[in-house]
Specification:
- There is one protein chain.
- With 319 residues, the protein is mainly alpha-helical.
- The chain is built from 14 helices and 2 strands.
- The protein starts with 25 loop residues before the first helix and ends with a helix.
Length: 319
Amino acid sequence: MSAPTLSTSKATRPRRGHPGPARPNSAREEFVRAVRRNISAHGFLIGAVLCFSFFSWYPMVREFILAFQKNENGKTTWAGWSNLSYVVNDPAFWQAWRNTLLFTGLALLLGFLVPFVVAVVLNEFRHGQGYLRLLVYLPVMLPPVASVLLFKYFYDPGYGLFNRILEVFHLPAQQWLQSTDTAMLSVVIAATWMNMGGATLIYLAALQSIPGELYEAAELDGAGLLRRVWHVTIPQTRLILSLLLLMQIIATMQVFTEPFLLTNGAGPEGSTTTVVYLIYQYAFNFNNYGSAAALGLVLLVVLAGFSAVYVRLSRSSED
């Protein structure tokens, strides 16, 4: 007589310790638990996106729309290309671009070269490097307005520090901010002193990441300091140099604070009028917000085009 069969076979009985079939709503519950675990991270992320959209993207879109509008007697109408035509035909437009390019060129000559040289010198010190880094970075920690006003005091033709130094060497005093020959250079010197600390520390960090064996091999080959910098330091820091070059060009073409406080914006005979200061004049002196937005759009297109060309050339050189 055969043994009776069980209603639930051993093969179909669920094993102890293993869950049965998943319920239909298990995926939704898992999603809810994941959201609860990361609710704070999602909150910070949403807040950052909203702030970025409101304070960055919205002004850009609003400027683009405003560049093609005209506001007369409280009534807004579409102006087409008239704002852009007005800006381009303004004689101050070309003068502002010449001054901006001059400032950018001088700032690259001083503000790009000086921090790199200072970083190379600091890297050669073996003791007290921390105090020297603090000393170099100190101007960055000062409020920009305070730094500019300090240089305005230094540039004073009567009792300024720079003219006193010239007197010690029996050199004639200069009208630093009152002369068309020296006004822009004075602005560049002040801007370089204010902003060189950050770039110097970045260069110094890049220099300290270079393997010491490369410098030792160069020294064994009889290379001096200049040859080590040219054949070892510059090739090893090329990526940082190119990145800071791009960032500095974009920053210097948007200069406003230094000429505005040192030379009241325009300077002698308009020698320090920059593109951003001309935008300020259109908007707040002439109440012509459409022209200000049109000039800002031109500046945006120029910087975006330059950045695209620069990135393309950088990629082609790497390939």
